[in-house]
């Protein structure tokens, strides 16, 4: 049986993960609207990953006899000033998520929940990867500085992201 405090904190994190999915789906729509299909594809893949993150926590609660609570998902922003601004917002969001995951690790230690602690190690590693991949794209965007050719090149690269 999962400790109540942990159950509640994971329920809140499920909401954070589904909000992340919503945010990246909104970004995907924004990129479609400015004719950058490769960027839109990358963000759509990110949306699918966030749904998986949410579901991984969902299964953990169900497997341990916990009660799943699906809270209302906040409406995400719809537009950004530029592709760079959208990716900067994504990085800021991922840093926030990293903070939430680390707080969950602290809680798992506090309540001595080994199972949650083990599950959370996967998320700790995943956050390192997520922040690094968004940072790399920001660096590319800063390098091309919004030039037409450069943006098309980055769009082509992002369009090659594999899903699943
Ligand atoms: Fe983007 O890692 Fe989950 O939220």
Overview of this structure, please?
By secondary structure, the chain is mostly helical. Helices cover 77% and strands 0% of the residues. It has five helices and no strands. The longest helix is centred in the last third of the chain and has 31 residues, at 114-144. The radius of gyration is 17 Å and the shape is elongated. The relative contact order is 0.16. Residues 17, 20, 50, 53, 94, 97, 130 line the site of hydroxy diiron-OXO moiety (OFO).
Secondary-structure blueprint:
Layout: H1 4-33, H2 37-63, H3 83-110, H4 114-144, H5 148-158
- The proportion of residues in beta strands is under 5%
The unreliable regions are: none
Number of strands: 0
**What is the share of helical residues?**
over 70%
What's the mean pLDDT score? Answer: 97
The dominant shape is: elongated
Q: Span from first to last CA?
A: 31 Å
Radius of gyration: 17 Å
Largest sheet: none
Number of helices: 5
Present as ligands are: hydroxy diiron-OXO moiety
Derived from helix and strand composition plus strand pairing, the structural class reads: mainly alpha
What string gives the helices and strands in order?
HHHHH
């Amino acid at each position: 049986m999962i400790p109540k405090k942990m159950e509640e904190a994971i329920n809140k994190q499920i909401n954070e993960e589904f909000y992340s999915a919503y945010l990246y789906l909104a970004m995907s729509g924004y990129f479609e609207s400015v004719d950058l299909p490769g960027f839109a594809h990358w963000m759509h893949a990110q949306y699918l990953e966030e749904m998986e993150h949410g579901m991984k926590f969902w299964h953990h609660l169900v497997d341990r006899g916990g009660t799943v609570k699906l809270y209302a998902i906040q409406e995400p922003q719809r537009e950004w000033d530029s592709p760079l601004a959208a990716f900067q917002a994504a990085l800021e969001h991922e840093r926030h998520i990293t903070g939430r995951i680390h707080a969950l690790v602290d809680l798992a230690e506090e309540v001595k929940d080994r199972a949650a602690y083990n599950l959370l190690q996967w998320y700790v590693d995943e956050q390192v990867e997520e922040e690094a991949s968004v940072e790399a794209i920001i660096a590319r965007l800063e390098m091309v500085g919004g030039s037409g050719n450069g943006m098309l090149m980055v769009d082509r690269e992002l369009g090659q992201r594999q899903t699943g």
